[in-house]
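Agenda item 2: zinc ion complex prediction
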Amino acid sequence: MSRSYPVPPPDEVTEGWWGATRQRRLVLQYCADCDRPQHPPRALCTACGATDHLGWRDASGEGIVDSCTVVERAPSPDFTPPYVVARVRLAEGPVLLTNVVDIAPYEVGIGDRVRLRWRDLPDGRALPVFGPASPRPEE
Amino acid sequence: MMRAPAVAIVGAAECDLGVTGRSILGLQAQAITRALADAGLPLRDVDGLATTGVSRFSTTQLAEYVGIQPSWVDSTFTGGGAFEMFVARAAQAIEAGQAEVVVVSFASNQRSARSRSLAGVLETHTPEAQFESPYGPLHPISHYAMAAAAYLHRYRATREQLAEVAIAAREWALLNPVAYRYGAGPLTVQDVLGAPVVSTPLTTGDCCLVTDGGGAVVLTSLDRARDLPRPPVRVLGYGEVSTNTSMAWPDDLATSGAAPAGRRAFAMAGLTPADVDVVEVYDSFTITVLLTLEALGFCGPGEASSFIQGGRIRPGGALPLNTSGGGLSYCHPGQFGVLLLVEAVRQLRGECADRQVPGAEIGLAHGTGGILSSHATVLLGVHR
Ligand SMILES: [Zn+2]
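Presented output:
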């Protein structure tokens, strides 16, 4: 699906998030002042404006498909349709744009429970993707 | 509450549309000179200019090209809805005395130049480049597709209901000789649902055209407008809001963030949706229209899918919508907002021949930019 897509390098704000993916840990940025998570990571807390005390906590890796679409035309030769682009709402609250994998694309639906998987990148980082949280009953 | 400005649109025109083989600046010059001719004003009187999509320095580039040195410019870049924002800023500039005659223009040759990409424009320093593009969304289509999926799921609306937006747009385009799909014949539900899927649930039948085209409108003070040849189309109200730039940031995709824009515009004008005779809303995709009608208060949340049925938004219907044929069947040069204004002005001046809405006195133009990212409403009125 995304074999060779060049993911830009982290910057000083996002390097902690990407560094965690090298250990296959999905982290969320939290503000210690107001205890709220946010994604993507930023140089300030969008809830309270604080610029200090922003840190990382491990996410549970559990989520729900908020919405999804099966992409049938490739945006570039790096991608091979069909594949699922989804908004997954993490148990902690923030929404991630991601792919839902390990399931036939047209089987993914809004409200599905999903769990974290990883897709390796050539430089040792990894992209968090999601797959079914539990086997589906036969239909 | 802000009051309505004493400012009017006094000229409106399209440049060549469709597949023109022309340059961006060549099309811009067409749009500007035609709109000024319509207004009965010479180029040398223009002292305000708002545009985007020309180059990195769009306003200075275009000002030099047409040979003016404006005392006011604006190139706020918020995507296809920027032109409704330009009307607001132009009205403020005219009232403040910073400019007397403002041209708002746009032109694109994207079809002739084959400059459109399904991936959108990637800027590697943005959070989206790190956190969204690696997953391969089509930009902007996949965002609207996810909004459509969320909407259909939440309200148990159907694909067939969504298709009505495209079918009605085609009905209007069949009445507009310069529409890209003029002469293409009517569209059916099966045509829309059976078209190639791009990003589920949207097919090519749900997506706006990719064409060349553009247009311009000319604004000046209501005082000066009274001496000009065309009936002045007064700016009655405006409002805007910017909401998001990424696909993950909006909390709820089944609702557009446009509501504050409409609320502000209606409050300034002292009007309600029931007062509007003709509606021109950005139809980048079929779903955009449903979300916008709900956000602007033409119907309640989840109601638009049934509200638009029964011919309500088609020619002869109770809510004439996108009377040019819209971005879906008339013209979509990448940033469509200026042509919403051109069509609203022409409807209010009673110039639309076969597609004229009889007696239209209040018009609404609503621009949507990016991925439901920015939203701007303009209310216009005329006494013919
Ligand atoms: Zn905070």
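Discussion summary: The longest strand of chain A covers residues 62-71.
Owner for follow-up: CH.
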